[in-house]
Amino acid sequence: MTGQTEQENLPTKAVDNKNGKEVPESQWTKILRRQDGSVDFNRNWMDYKLGFGNPDADFFIGLEMLHRLTSNGKPKELLIVLVDYENETRFARYDKFRIGSEAEKYAITELGAYSGDAGDGMGWHRGKKFTTFDQDNNAGNIRDCPQYFKGGWWFHDPCYSGYLHGQYRTKENSRIWGVSWDPWRKWDVSMKYAAMMIRDKIRQDGSVNFNRSWNEYDNGFGNPDGNYFMGLQRIYELTNFGGPQELLIVLKDFDGVTRYAKYKRFRIDSEEEKYALLDVGGYSGDAGNSFEIHKGHAFSTYDRDNDNSPDRNNAVIFQGGWWFFGLGYHGYLNGPYRQESESNNWGISWHDFRIWNRSLKYAQMMIRNKC
Predict the structure, then answer these.
(1) 323 and 277 in contact (C-beta within 8 Å)?
(2) Which end of the chain has less neighbouring CB within 10 Å, N or C?
(3) Whole-angstrom Cα distance, residue 175 to residue 179?
(4) Who contacts 62 (Cβ-Cβ below 8 Å, separation ≥6)?
């Protein structure tokens, strides 16, 4: 995993532009960073395929890895964060993002709806193949784009609208193309900083019922394009055989306030042990530590009551599966989804953020190998 810069560390510290607009929470996997010019991006096809650079500075993850990340598993969304030499930050977000295989020349085979304040610099490149100086897949003949602009990209005549692989320019030389985003600072002005990040799509609309049986929670359920749960067996495998894992929980209320809770340790037990929350700890964040109190508790569903309450089944009362304890929960993300008009009630709840009986607009849980 890559290190994080101040600009990327969005859940830790929100990045705002001069208009006070909050950039969405940080994405989990960084695929590109430009911040100091320490790495040459004028590379051949093989370099771009395999990736290059310093994960703690300028780097590109590699086209083959990017294809695998965006083509396997849950659909991804893309966030691009830009900072100019006046230290203003803007972002562009796309709700779907997928890269084709090498046989498809690593084309942008899917790019979803744009939102943000940087302008839609990637829309022009939708469907375009990747091109380097030694493999020309550019859709047109107006200009030899990688030769002229000194880097590989999803070029399309007359080359680009957004382009983050060009030459890195210092402030004194920034009034020329390089790391450029035409809808914001025009095609011939270079940025101080740029990052591209991807993440799984999130629970956000209540389209899936989370009041499910033990077997459904065991196997997972839902729509990968909307609300879903990975499955307890899969979480068990990842947290026990995939190396030590850390957990990030991102929450947003109906006022648009985003908070996060991060845990350095996260592991659940096997089905024989009722998928108990074996370890969760090392909290940091601004949402409050509403999950660690559930440590050691077994998972419960309406048809498999494993909480330690002698006189009630919390999964029946709160209409979803979770690691309940006797009185119910402190943090609970599998309850009924409430619309804003109904949010003054328990549902998707986090006591240390908006107390236990208020519901949130969306929630996401993510794990990764510890860096």
Answers:
(1) yes
(2) C
(3) 11
(4) 48, 49, 50, 51, 52
